[in-house]
Structure formats: C-alpha cells, structure tokens
C-alpha cells in the first residue's frame, strides 16, 4: 500500500458521521478571544462597572459539580452496558441529551474563563486601586469556576463514549484498516 492509498477520515467526510469530541484547543481559542475582547471592553469602561460580588462566579461551581455527578452515573451505566430502553437503563435519547449538555457546558466554561481572565488581567494592571483590590478575588473565583466547568464538561463528554468507540481502541482506525 502506498502513502496515497491511505485515507484519513475528515470531518466533512460523509462516511465519518456523528459528533466529534470537543477539542481542548478550540476551547482555548474561544477563551483567548473572549479574554482579549473583555480586556478591551473593561479597559474602556471599568469606572462605570458596579463592584463585583465575591461569589459572582459561584454558579459555575454548582454546574461543574452537577456535571461531575452526572458523569459518574453515565460512566457506570455505560461501562456496565446498561444503556437501552428498558426500565432502569440509560435511555439512548437521554445519553444524547447529556452529550449535548456536555458540549454546551464546555463552551460556556471556555467563555467564562475568557471573561474572568480578561477581567483579571486588567485588574492586575491596576496596582493602586481599592476598587480593583476588591474585584480581584471575584475574578479569581470566576476564573477557577470556569476552568472547573470546562473540565467537568469534557469529562462528562468522555463518559458518554461507548466502550467500542474506535478512538478508544489502541491503534484502531474508524475505517477498520
């Protein structure tokens, strides 16, 4: 077989159907672009913003914890082959909804990381401002919450994979060659 004979499946290849796993580099790109935009906006209008409450990003922690619990449940059902339509099993439609939740939450986590990072970077540049001193802890709480949410969402997405996914088998390719 020559080099030209081997085909790697592409994302737009109709033979390669289904959702592709969320890539961390895509989430990092979203976070970076969001951070730059927020930094620019805050730089222009920081004096007009109200003080940030310390627990402004706490909802991100709650979402991350919820997704971690869902991931444990889904992982146990998938690993014990309890996916199906019977009573007590994880319904396939529910699994698809959980996967959609994981993908959306990963994006939300990346956006939150970008927002809080952009805000935090600006606040670090204000060394002698009491308002910035007050807002820095809130930015840190939000940033950590965004990272935790993105990590929990990626883990939940991973837990939704079936045990016979081609990507899970070492050295196996989707086309079977």
From TrEMBL:
This protein's name: DUF3180 domain-containing protein
Originating species: Williamsia serinedens
Pfam family, one: DUF3180
UniProt KW keywords: Membrane, Transmembrane, Transmembrane helix
Spans through the membrane: 27-46, 52-74, 95-117, 137-156
Entry annotated with the keyword Transmembrane: yes
Cited InterPro entries: DUF3180 (IPR021517)
């Amino acid at each position: 077989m020559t080099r030209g004979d081997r085909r790697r499946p592409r994302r737009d290849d109709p033979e390669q159907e289904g959702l592709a796993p969320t890539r961390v580099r895509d989430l990092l790109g979203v976070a970076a672009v969001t951070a730059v935009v927020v930094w620019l906006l805050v730089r222009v209008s920081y004096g007009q913003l109200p003080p940030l409450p310390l627990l402004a990003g706490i909802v991100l922690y709650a979402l991350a914890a919820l997704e971690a619990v869902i991931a444990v449940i889904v992982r146990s059902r998938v690993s014990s082959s309890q996916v199906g339509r019977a009573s007590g099993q994880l319904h396939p439609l529910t699994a698809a909804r959980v996967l959609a939740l994981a993908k959306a939450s990963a994006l939300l986590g990346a956006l939150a990381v970008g927002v809080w990072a952009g805000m935090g970077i600006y606040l670090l540049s204000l060394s002698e401002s009491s308002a910035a001193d007050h807002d820095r802890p809130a930015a840190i709480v939000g940033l950590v919450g965004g990272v935790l949410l993105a990590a929990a969402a990626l883990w939940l997405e991973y837990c939704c994979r079936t045990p016979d996914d081609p990507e899970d088998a070492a050295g196996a390719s989707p086309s079977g060659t």
